[in-house]
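Run log // design_07
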């Protein structure tokens, strides 16, 4: 569940709980006959409105987003145009790709996240790559996007910063 949804549920729950506690403990101390004969209908309506608001909040904020359900297939089998995004994570000193069953030739967007503590970049070489084949240097915790058209062939993804590739910061990708 997204952070915004959690916050929304927490705010609505806090309002509902505050109303219940104040109606139970605070109001009777100040007004001993609370809600009284004349205000009983208003109090009952307010209770139902707050209860309906709480149920609505659970239904609205409790839903999982489509992104949460669709994220895994986009990484494992990028066969459709929407699924031609490949998430790459770089750290010291490795490049992590999602498992790829089979890639066909076409345009791919590589979303690169530097999960390491030092800067990295990503270069795609080999095969028949056209378009942008190198990201700028990505600071620690940063992200970059690389859009490239890949033809059939074997590709090597690596960090071109001095010494990084030699320390094992490379991965293989086959398109065919």
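design_07 sequence
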């Amino acid at each position: 569940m997204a952070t915004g949804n959690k916050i929304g549920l927490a705010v609505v729950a806090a309002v509902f709980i505050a109303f219940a506690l104040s109606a139970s403990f605070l109001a009777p101390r100040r007004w001993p006959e609370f809600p009284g004969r004349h205000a009983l209908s208003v109090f009952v309506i307010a209770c139902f409105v707050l209860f309906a608001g709480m149920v609505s909040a659970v239904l609205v904020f409790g839903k999982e987003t489509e992104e949460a359900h669709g994220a895994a297939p986009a990484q494992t089998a990028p066969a459709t145009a929407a699924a031609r995004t490949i998430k790459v994570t770089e750290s010291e000193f490795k490049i992590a790709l999602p498992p790829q069953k089979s890639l066909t030739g076409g345009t791919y967007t590589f979303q690169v996240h530097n999960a390491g503590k030092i800067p990295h970049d990503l270069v795609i070489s080999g095969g028949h790559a056209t378009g942008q084949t190198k990201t700028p240097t990505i600071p620690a915790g940063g992200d970059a996007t690389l859009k490239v058209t890949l033809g059939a062939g074997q590709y090597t993804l690596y960090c071109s910063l001095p010494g990084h590739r030699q320390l094992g910061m490379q991965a293989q990708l086959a398109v065919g």
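Confidence is low (pLDDT under 50) at residues 66-82.
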